[in-house]
Hints:
Blueprint: H1 4-16, H2 23-34, H3 40-50, H4 53-58, H5 61-70, H6 72-79, H7 115-122, H8 126-132, H9 136-141, E1 149-155, E2 161-167, H10 172-181, H11 201-206, E3 213-220, H12 228-237, H13 242-252, H14 258-267, H15 272-279, H16 290-297, H17 299-312, E4 315-319, E5 322-327, H18 330-333, H19 335-348, E6 352-353, E7 359-362, E8 368-369, E9 372-373, H20 382-398, H21 411-425, H22 427-438
Antiparallel strand pairs: 1-2, 3-5, 3-6, 3-7, 4-5, 8-9
Amino acid sequence: xxxxxxxxxxxxxxxxxxxxxxxxxxxxxxxxxxxxxxxxxxxxxxxxxxxxxxxxxxxxxxxxxxxxxxxxxxxxxxxxxxxxxxxxxxxxxxxxxxxxxxxxxxxxxxxxxxxxxxxxxxxxxxxxxxxxxxxxxxxxxxxxxxxxxxxxxxxxxxxxxxxxxxxxxxxxxxxxxxxxxxxxxxxxxxxxxxxxxxxxxxxxxxxxxxxxxxxxxxxxxxxxxxxxxxxxxxxxxxxxxxxxxxxxxxxxxxxxxxxxxxxxxxxxxxxxxxxxxxxxxxxxxxxxxxxxxxxxxxxxxxxxxxxxxxxxxxxxxxxxxxxxxxxxxxxxxxxxxxxxxxxxxxxxxxxxxxxxxxxxxxxxxxxxxxxxxxxxxxxxxxxxxxxxxxxxxxxxxxxxxxxxxxxxxxxxxxxxxxxxxxxxxxxxxxxxxxxxxxxxxxxx
Length: 444
């Protein structure tokens, strides 16, 4: 619950933002808000006007209220015998977007000055927007029939389970519009290779091909550790007012409901610490916006780790939660120091390392990046290539149905997809697979 001191600071912050950013105008508005002028408001107004114009433009009302609470003059006024009382509130809404951060001025993003404009753009009624953006505390305690997501446990390739939180059909198109018309127009860091149209897992692997040493690190619980507060800060940084940033955050995050958490706890499906991450508002793994938002929230991580790689004379890229450094043999001797620095940077930026998946791969053994061999050039693992070649050979000799042991409904498309992937990784070597695929008689 908000205290009187906080509510008064919020009222003062709204007054400061409701007109010209000059000392005289701000002091006058604070005087109107409190019913009388005060000496401490001059110092507060001067400090506010001394902030860079770009920072002032991007300050939300809540953030400015926090600065007001830290002001010594305001604190003394709150401790006085006659308490501060708000006489008038400034209720005028912000009708313009704030300035975009440096380097993003070329980005074309939608103009949503308030939540009503966002609702009209999404084609949602006010009642529908209210229902979709209710507080996370309600969402966590509501019955499963009132939730906006479906919940399903899925096995990981590396072992264990992950919780998929898939939005309902009425929410998914709204998230897709936010992704297509907003998030896709904001570029992530150049080291991010996943979930971007210009880069792929092959870009990630090629950056580390033919290197003497490959260091791999992994982020644990990648999506669930991205809190709603970080998403709100991202939208606010893009210049959206507080109410719009809050609405966008509510549309793109979720808090896993208590019945689902209780069931997973009783079954032992997920460890306790993962359930705590899911209990707080987070990015749902299964929403179309989550990958792009996670990429943007990792900008500082990528920036700092790329700087570390540059200081080591190494290369760095990230594919989702997979962090990879590669370079000369000196990396092998500095492994412990690099791991410590990377873990510190990751922790400072609000993520967690999965130390069990840390790997140091020298050129004398098989080096893999996202299951792609990179010792000389990107290539499929030999056992995977040989297994696919054997399946295609048997399909030619005995018919394709003889090898469909898992009864896949689209067996032909499945084989074509695997061969196409092999051709992307290593086009020259995949020619043998393509010839075998073309030789299959699909009428048998």
